[in-house]
Design goal:
Blueprint lengths: L3 E3 L5 H8 L17 H6 L2 H14 L5 E6 L2 E6 L9
Antiparallel strand pairs: 1-2, 2-3
C-alpha cells in the first residue's frame, strides 16, 4: 500500500504547494465557493491568493485538508456557505 499523508493545514506553507505558483485552475485559489460570483469576477488572481492566505492564517480551525501521495498533492476545502432560497 502506498503512503498517503493527510493532515490538517497548520500554516500557509502547508497550503501553498498544493496550489502551485499560479493558484491551480487558472488562479482561482479555491475562492470560487467562498464569495459571491460578482465579487469573484472582480478579484484578480493575486487578490484571491491573498484572500485564501488570510483565511488560512487567521482561522482557528484549518479551512481544508491537504493530502500528499508520492509527490502528488490534493486539497479538500471545508467551508460554510449560505444558500439562497427561491
Amino acid at each position: 500500500m502506498r503512503d498517503l499523508e493527510i493532515r490538517p493545514a497548520g500554516s500557509w506553507d502547508d497550503i501553498q504547494p498544493v496550489f502551485g505558483p499560479h493558484g491551480a485552475y487558472s488562479g482561482r485559489w479555491c475562492i470560487w465557493f467562498r464569495v459571491a460570483e460578482a465579487e469573484f469576477r472582480n478579484l484578480g488572481a493575486g487578490d484571491r491568493r491573498a484572500r485564501l492566505q488570510t483565511i488560512v492564517e487567521g482561522s482557528e480551525r484549518a479551512p481544508g485538508v491537504p493530502a500528499c501521495l508520492e509527490g502528488a498533492r490534493w486539497w479538500g476545502g471545508v467551508l460554510w456557505r449560505r444558500v439562497r432560497s427561491t
